[in-house]
Amino acid sequence: MKKRQIQILGKILFILYIIFLLWFLIISDWYGRDGVLKEYHYNLIPFTEMKRFWRYREQLGVWSAINLLGNVLIFVPFGFFEAIASQHRSFWAIMLDGLFVSLLVEVFQFLAKVGRFDVDDLILNTSGVIIGYIVFLIGNTIRRKYGTKRTKQRKRA
Predict the structure, then answer these.
(1) Taking the model in full, what pTM does it have?
(2) CB neighbour class for 86 (10 Å; exposed up to 12, middle 13-18, buried from 19)
(3) In angstroms, rounded to a whole number, what is the distance separating the alpha carbons of residues 88 and 101?
(4) Is residue 43 helix, strand or coil?
(5) How would DSSP label each residue in 47-97?
(6) Is 31 exposed, middle or buried (0-12, 13-18, 19+ CB in 10 A)?
């Protein structure tokens, strides 16, 4: 595939991912509850909820790992697809975009009372963006390395 086609595919996948993300984090949560929360819930102290999930992991069972890993994994595609779709693949720009989207989701959940604002979610989500970006870099390096060899072999033939 040509670079332009890959960017277009990346943009399409990124848009589909954002739609899925909004559905999963906001809309499905809205409709999945019997009612909205009656009061605001929030955590502004970093690592508080992560420590709590780790401390009570035996009582919580698999849900402890699902909550922590889920917050990371849900944002891995963000870092990956934005890097594909973007012409400027700056680590900082992509990381800050991911942090901003995560912050928007958290603020919306807080204001709409469909979830709770948790600074730990921002940390975990942003970690997912960084992992996605690293996966992109690894894949792009492999593509360039083997793509260059294949192009050289074609020119020789």
Answers:
(1) 0.83
(2) middle
(3) 18
(4) strand
(5) THHHHHHHHTHHHHTHHHHHHHHHHHHTTHHHHHHHHHH-SS--HHHHHHH
(6) exposed
Measured N-to-C along each axis, helices 119-156 and 91-112 cross at an angle, to the nearest 10 degrees, of 140
Q: Which of 24, 78, 155, 33 has the alpha carbon at shortest distance from 147?
A: 155
- The CB density around residue 145, as the number of other CB atoms within 10 Å, is 10
Residue % of the chain over a pLDDT of 90:
55
More confident residue, 39 or 154: 39
Give the span between the Cα atoms of 79 and 57, in whole angstroms.
Answer: 28
DSSP-assigned letter for residue 46: T
111 to 27, 37, 76, 104: CA distances (angstroms): 14, 10, 25, 11
Element (H, E) at 42: strand 42-43
What are the structure tokens assigned to 140, written together? 């792009």
Please answer whether residues 130 and 79 qualify as being in contact, where contact means their C-beta atoms are separated by less than 8 angstroms.
Answer: yes
